[in-house]
C-alpha cells in the first residue's frame, strides 16, 4: 500500500554539512521513554538526502521550495531500506554512522519482506525467498550494531493477511520472529518496533496474537499508523488495547507525519490531509515519528493519479502543509 523513496547513502558523508536536527524532548516524556537510544543521543537525525531535501536542493527557484524546506525537508524523517544497490550492510552502516557522528538518533524502516504489500499492490516486491530475507534482515541488524537507532520492522506485514495463504502467513510470522531476534541479539542500542497497522484495520486481540507470534516480546514493541492518517489519540487507544491484550509490558510508537486532520477512510493520496506534530518523545507512547515521508506518493491514485508510489511530489507536499 505504501512506499517511501529508497535513497542511496553514498553521498551522506559529503552532505552532512546540510544536516538539520530537531530536539527530542518536545513533550514531557513518560517513564518508558527515559532510557535506551533516546538517552544516548541529543536529538533526531534529519536525513539531508530525503526526497523533500533533494527536491528543494534541485529546485531552489521554485516558489514552493522555501515552504517545503521549512515544513518538511528540515524535519527528521525515517529512511526506508529495501533492496539497496550498494548492499544493505553498507547502506545501513553508512546511515547510522552518519547519525552517530553527530550524536543524533536515526529512524530506519526495514521494508523488504517477501510478498510485500501483497494485497494492496502499489508497493509490491521484497526479497525473493525466506532464506534471502533472513540473510537481508540479519545483515541489516548487524549493520546497525551498537549505534543508537529506532527501527520500524516491515510496515503492513502483520495486517496485510487477507490475500495470503496459510503457508505464506506462517512463513511471514516466522520471518518477523527471526527479525525480532536479530535486532535483540545484534542491535542492543536499538528500539525496534514490529508494525501493527492502524486503528481501523485489525482488531486489537487479533493483532496482539500476531505480534506475539512475530516475537514482539524480544524487542521494544510495535508501531502504529505508518503511512496512514488516523489521529494520535485514536492510535493511542488502539495501542493501549493491543498492549492490554498482550498482557502489558510492550511499548509503541506512532507515525504522525500526515495525521493532522485525521483520516477520511481513504489510504491512497486522499485529499484534505495535513502534517501532524513533528517527531518527538511521546507521553502515552514512546515516540511520535515521521515514518512516512510527507509528499511521497502512496501510489497512482487519489489526488496523485500519475505519481508512482514512493516518488516525491511537491504538489502533495504543499497540500499536506495547507491541509487541502
From TrEMBL:
The active site is at residue 156. Residues 1-34 form the signal peptide. Its EC number is 3.2.1.-. GO terms for molecular function: hydrolase activity. It holds the Pfam family Glyco_hydro_6. PROSITE patterns: GLYCOSYL_HYDROL_F6_2. Keywords: Carbohydrate metabolism, Cellulose degradation, Disulfide bond, Glycosidase, Hydrolase, Polysaccharide degradation, Signal. It comes from the Bacteria. Gene3D superfamilies: 1, 4-beta cellobiohydrolase. InterPro entries: Beta_cellobiohydrolase (IPR016288), Beta_cellobiohydrolase_sf (IPR036434), Glyco_hydro_6_CS (IPR001524). Belongs to the glycosyl hydrolase family 6. This is Glucanase. It comes from Streptomyces hokutonensis.
